[in-house]
Amino acid sequence: MSELKLVIGNKNYSSWSLRPWLLLRHHRLRFEEICLPLYTAEYTTRIAALSPSGKVPVLHHGDFAVWDSLAICEYVSEQLLDGRGWPADPRARAVARAASAEMHAGFQGVRTNLPMNLRGRFLWRSPGPEVEAEIARIVGLWTDCRARFGALGPWLFGEFSIADAMYVPVALRFATYNTPLEGAAADYVQTCLDDEHVRAWRGGACQETESLPQYEARELWEPMGGGSAC
């Protein structure tokens, strides 16, 4: 059994769980996956023994536990990847860290109004100017990173990095809600959708049966076609 254990929530809804999961998968690190369905009796019963914060995700490395998506990614990069979670170039690395921190602490409007729901497909309707401004900032950030640092591959800094782990869930939200994008931002969303590990996570989401009304019943959003991406 692997000495790495990653405790996550529902794949359909838990964007924070996806982030360290992707980093581990991209670097082919073996780990045991423990999924606790959010807002259930099972979650309430088991989480206290698994997570100091009472939240997911949490990584167990032997007898050591670290929680919070970005902290987990930092730990994995430093302890298991010889720093390869970040770009090697110092300037690219600094920008990648800044972009990741901005995602970690900000974009509350996008999080609230475009909740992660990988099984859903919705027609785009603007959530309002404040959310539109956050989307514009994300698009500008992606475009800048690709232009300045993306020459060696399709990810934000060429090769997959922690910055991508932080922004893939945003790209998936944009796909779910058919957010109008073009240029480098549209290409980046497609890169995320085409990734084998993202496809694996989405496949797991489609197999889940739990439905959380707070992420499903959104008056703003009108389902597309059959209303499902599965």
Topology:
Blueprint: E1 4-8, H1 15-26, E2 32-35, H2 41-50, E3 58-61, E4 64-67, H3 69-80, H4 90-105, H5 108-113, E5 120-123, H6 129-149, H7 162-176, H8 183-194, H9 196-207, H10 213-216, E6 222-228
Parallel strand pairs: 1-2
Antiparallel strand pairs: 1-3, 3-4, 5-6
Helix pairs in contact: 1-3, 1-7, 4-6, 4-7, 6-8, 7-8
Protein name: GST N-terminal domain-containing protein
GO molecular function, one term: maleylacetoacetate isomerase activity
Domain GST N-terminal: 4-84
List keywords for this structure.
230 residues, Glutaredoxin, Glutathione S-transferase Yfyf (Class Pi), Chain A, domain 2, four-stranded mixed beta sheet, two-stranded antiparallel sheet, 52% helix, globular, Thioredoxin-like_sf, glutathione transferase activity, Glutathione_S-Trfase_N, maleylacetoacetate isomerase activity, Glutathione-S-Trfase_C_sf
Describe the structure.
- The chain is an alpha+beta fold and 230 residues long.
- It has two domains: 4-80, 3-Layer(aba) Sandwich (Glutaredoxin), CATH 3.40.30.10; 90-204, Glutathione S-transferase Yfyf (Class Pi), Chain A, domain 2, CATH 1.20.1050.
- The chain contains ten helices and six strands, in the order βαβαββαααβαααααβ.
- Strands 2-1-3-4 form a four-stranded mixed beta sheet, covered by helices on one side. It has a two-stranded antiparallel sheet with strand order 5-6.
- Helix 1 packs across helix 7 (162-176), helix 4 (90-105) packs antiparallel against helix 6 and helix 7 (162-176) crosses helix 8.
- The longest helix has 21 residues, at 129-149.
